[in-house]
């Protein structure tokens, strides 16, 4: 027998002894992790099933109207104040200053949602966007950005696309909510027990 074979057999024997002597410990660890995961999944399912999602069409339209009224008023005032008139008498902003309205849109939608938990319109309408899991927490940047990136599609033709998708999804989600894995609920349906 060559020394390499002896070393390999010794290593295998040592590993076997180490693992078999700790097998009860590994079994306990597996059992503990499994119980914890089952408990967490059960709690998550209870939270989601208890949390009532409703279409809230009127509140959502009001919230969107408030948010985008503020955004459009800022947009028009900014263009008029800092824009340059062209031959037709219309104003336009070019170059780097043209990013200001886009940044303002981001702050008013995504920024407020991830910073304060809701946009100004949602806060005034008494609704809040939360993750689809039902956990009462602020949205992440990705969740909020996805929701609002599809606002123009959801609001197309006086919000018809958004209304149709809200009415025809099991969690009353518009396209932006579906892509962002979020739901919109009334503030009174949220409790601190559902917080992380």
TrEMBL record:
<dbReference type="Pfam" id="PF06271">
    <property type="entry name" value="RDD"/>
</dbReference>
<feature type="transmembrane region" description="Helical">
    <location>
        <begin position="61"/>
        <end position="82"/>
    </location>
</feature>
<feature type="domain" description="RDD">
    <location>
        <begin position="55"/>
        <end position="180"/>
    </location>
</feature>
<keyword id="KW-0812">Transmembrane</keyword>
<keyword id="KW-1133">Transmembrane helix</keyword>
<feature type="transmembrane region" description="Helical">
    <location>
        <begin position="13"/>
        <end position="30"/>
    </location>
</feature>
<protein>
    <submittedName>
        <fullName>Uncharacterized membrane protein YckC, RDD family</fullName>
    </submittedName>
</protein>
<feature type="transmembrane region" description="Helical">
    <location>
        <begin position="102"/>
        <end position="127"/>
    </location>
</feature>
<keyword id="KW-0472">Membrane</keyword>
<dbReference type="GO" id="GO:0016020">
    <property type="term" value="C:membrane"/>
</dbReference>
<dbReference type="InterPro" id="IPR010432">
    <property type="entry name" value="RDD"/>
</dbReference>
